[in-house]
Amino acid sequence: MKIPLLVFNDKGIYCQQADVYLDPWKPIKNAIITHGHSDHARWGHQNYITHHTNIPIIRHRLGEINVTGKEWGETFVINNVKFSLHPAGHIIGSSQVRVEHKGEVWVFTGDYKTEDDGIATPYETVKCHTFITECTFGLPAFNWAPQAEVISEINNWWAENKAEGRASILFGYSLGKAQRLLKYLDTDIGKIYTHGAIENMTNVLRPMVYFPPTELITKETKREALLGNIVLAPPSAHGSIWIRKMTPFVTGSASGWMAFRGARRRRAIDKGFVLSDHCDWHALLESIKATGAERVICTHGYTDIFAKYLRELGYDARTEKTQYEGESAEMEKAEFDQETPIVSE
Questions:
Q1: Which residue among 14, 126, 182, 334 is least enclosed by CB atoms within 10 Å?
Q2: From CA 103, how far away is CA 101, in angstroms rounded?
Q3: Burial class (CB in 10 A: 0-12, 13-18, 19+), 84
Q4: Category of 106 on φ-ψ map: left (φ > 0), alpha (ψ -120 to 50) or beta
Q5: Neighbour count for residue 115 (Cβ, 10 Å)
Q6: Domain 147-275 bears CATH identifier 3.90.470.20
Q7: How far apart are CA 185 and CA 151, in angstroms?
């Protein structure tokens, strides 16, 4: 029986012919990493391969690892298996992995989105026979508005809060979402303050992308200085002592999960903005069609529902379990605990 080019086991997605794993979740010898989020880039591997723009990100998070950087579309061969990295559009440095052996081509997306956010290298369609896709938001209910509309909504919210003399606290993951928000916040409204986790990660990325100036919140930051201004913080900061020191304030969250009305209520968020670094339902379907793939493997998200729908469309579709968690994986509690100053009264 022919062994599939990529198989799923208890360590990750494995290419036996090359003895290489894609985004493994247990320590192994050789790992190809799609991007820097903690559920895809883990500590403990002997050798890492990733796009060169992702190297500063994973070194910031993992320390001095042994890592090799590749260019977009650069072919590298391991034991006669051809690999190349292609833009995934998810966050800065995020890749899809193309794997080719004896005329058979597989593509592993990692996490991806097809809307060009003006920061990450835009998503690129890669033709293949088998497509491994996330389906974090693989339900018809998820249908994103254009980014420009959401950013305008956020800036209007900030301006309204300023007029009422309140601080605006906007939650977004420290890698990816925070920088996407920061890039388009209107500094004519006021100043942008940051939590330590977001400030430190943004400083890693500033050599690659222009971002507006920010001011790190420290123990010396006065509560009065925040009034009328906006604070970018990781979701794990919500409900903390750090937040309560900033009253009066209004909270907002930028996430695909804000498409569900109950999500904002359950998380005790004042305002939800539907902004995701993942594909919505339509983008997933369009992406799969564009690859020309006959076989589709669905991972992390609404896998069963999405795969069933794909089979109804005529695809050879199935699901595989992974330890990737999509947008729910980026809470970064450890970073919050390590980098949380208390605001002065």
A1: 334
A2: 5
A3: buried
A4: beta
A5: 18
A6: no
A7: 7
Q: Rounded to whole angstroms, how far apart are CA atoms 230 and 167?
A: 6
pLDDT tens digits, 262-318: 666 666 789 999 999 999 999 999 999 999 999 999 999 999 999 999 999 999 999
How many beta carbons lie within 10 A of that of residue 96, not counting itself? 28
DSSP state of 25: S
Whether the bond into 248 is cis, omega within 30 of 0: yes
Query: pLDDT for 181-202, tens place per residue?
Result: 999 999 999 999 999 999 999 9
Q: What is the reported pLDDT for 266? A: 64
3-state secondary structure of 10: coil
Is 57:93 a contact under the CB 8 Å cutoff?
A: yes
Cα Rg for the chain, rounded, in angstroms? 21
Environment class of 35 (CB within 10 Å of its CB; exposed 0-12, middle 13-18, buried 19+) = buried
pLDDT at residue 344 greater than cutoff 60? no
Q: Beta partners for 231?
A: 169, 193
* Window from 58-72, 99-113, 139-153, 241-255 with minimum mean pLDDT: 241-255
Task: Sketch the domain layout of the chain as residue ranges.
Answer: 7-141+278-328, 147-275
Q: Which two tokens stand for residue 334?
A: 């450890």
Q: Which fold has domain 7-141+278-328?
A: Metallo-beta-lactamase; Chain A (3.60.15)
Strand segments (E) across 136-191: 167-171
Position of tokens 């569900």? 260
The edge-to-edge listing of strands for the beta sheet with 81-87 is 76-78, 81-87, 95-101, 104-108, 130-135, 295-301, 316-319
The token duo for 120 is 């990450």
Q: What is the pLDDT of residue 343?
A: 55
